Amino acid sequence: MMPTAFLHEIDAAGVVRASYSIDKLVCSLGTDKNTDIRLRGRGVGAVHAQVRVGKDGVAIEAVGGERVVVNGKRTDTRVLQPGDILDIGGVRLRFDMRLSAPARAEPRATTPVTGATASLKAMLSATARFSEALAGTYKIEELLETMLDEIIAVTEAARGAVLLLVEGKAVQRSAREAGKRPARGEMPISDTIVARVLQTQKPEIVSDALNDTMFSAARSVMDYKLASVLCVPLNMRGELLGVIYLGNDNVVNLFTDEALEVATVFAAQAAMALRNAILIRELQLSNESLTQQLERIHFGSLIGTSGAMKEVFRRVDKVARTDVSVLIEGETGTGKELVASELHRRSHRKDGPFIVLNCGAIPENLLESELFGHVKGSFTGAVATRDGKFAAAHGGTLFLDEIGEMPLNLQVKLLRVLEERRVTRVGESNARDVDIRVVAATNRHLADEVKGGTFREDLYYRLNVVRVELPPLRERGNDVELLGRYFLKKYGDELGVAIQGFSEDGVRALRAHRWPGNIRELENRIKKAVIFCDGGTVAARDLDLQEVEADRVLPLNEAKEAFALDYVRRVLELNDGNRTSTARDLGVDVRTIFRYLERSREEDVEA
Fold this sequence. Notes:
A 6-stranded antiparallel β-sheet has the order 2-1-11-10-7-8, with no helix packed on it. It has 5 domains: 99 residues, Tumour Suppressor Smad4 (Sandwich); 170 residues, Beta-Lactamase; 163 residues, 3-Layer(aba) Sandwich (Rossmann fold), CATH 3.40.50; 65 residues, Helicase, Ruva Protein, domain 3, CATH 1.10.8; 51 residues, Arc Repressor Mutant, subunit A, CATH 1.10.10. The chain is elongated and about 110 Å long. The protein is α+β, with helices and mostly antiparallel strands. Helices cover 40% and strands 23% of the residues. A hairpin with a 2-residue loop joins strand 5 and strand 6.
């Protein structure tokens, strides 16, 4: 009886949903269509893991930093025992071994292991060695050298080369001599043989190349005086990767059909290993490309490629070199403090202090002291003399966040300081000069506050020399995905979690969500997703966002309603939530506005 290994895909109750036999020395697992065992589930990588059959038994190995859990414990590699439970992302598998009877054969006398049996044994041994080499590296050049060394040894060839398809053309990537020696330069080959193997995707053998009228004039035959040539395709489930080209220069060691069969079996195994390495290299290049892309889209600490953000970058770059006051307007969470910091960093004051004061977070009776400072005994609790934020920012930049929350009586004092550039501490009569630049920010529309009498017009114009308006995240297009990937890398590195990126449904959810909390909300959701994500990719569920159907085209009536709802929301924001003003601006009855508001609340509840 012979043991056969199986992986059973099971549900939460342990019921088997699908079974996969381990019928190769190396079997790949993942979502890619070219893997041997294709899994479908949340958090499963393209090539997530591989099962390797070796002398120690059947082992599971994580690929490219993916996460594999065996019996509740994360592992990079582990020899499996019957009954072991494996978690590959969101897919659960159970390992099993069964005994199966070998094919019945007529009794025969015991003979030594020679000929085809010896070649088969050598081929299996070479494939096992190649699998072990695969476990140690995913560098393609090293794998190609190992592949050639092993197949040259098992077929007793004198030399060989690997040609890989690049944009439809076969390009020689590695050449080796027998004895695990590098070839002297590129190995001459027979273009005719290679072209035929690429076209038919079937192996070719020329047992007596010197006397074959078709191939005797080939460069490889003439240059190396090859007596025999063998060429086999590297084919992975219908995908042609290239060919292995082998040559012999000894007339007493010509290639036989047996050597061709051994090379064909070996090439099939090698193609799978090579394909896995290529997939991993593509992931590495994708990550490198993403890193380079992030470097290009950075404007200091700011990230974005949308037209609105490019305009923000342009204005910041222009005004940073001056000392004029800047007013930053934008919704909560859009990054106003980052813009203020970037203004400071690009100014001639960059070596001076950058002082931040949130005017909405400090009680009114303490705000004046925080701004201007106080002397000991000037009010109850003033146990010592201390300077305020203006004095602390001397020679640098003072950032007044949520300036719209400042009481009117303090607005008068702030205006005086901005005009005179002199500050007087509470309880003191002597004023002191201050050299500062003021940058203010608000989530309100200060022009409307001026009209409503809650903000002084003269202070507004003093602060609003240059205005920078930050767009909400929902209006920044693909920036949401760029920012999402930036935060994934940031928190993945901080928390020591290997995250490859977003799943397809995760990307769709990012793009579809309205992001009322803007970048702050995005950052918080991704940080939580990195902590709780079970697989190598972040899905909509990990972000606590509703999954969005892929490529769904809305009927025209639904599309019109969606646009109308979004437009009503925007006009309502411009009117600070005033439904009557919104109805008047849109030329509709106020009941229409209430109808859209009710629909908006329903969508928020569903989300």
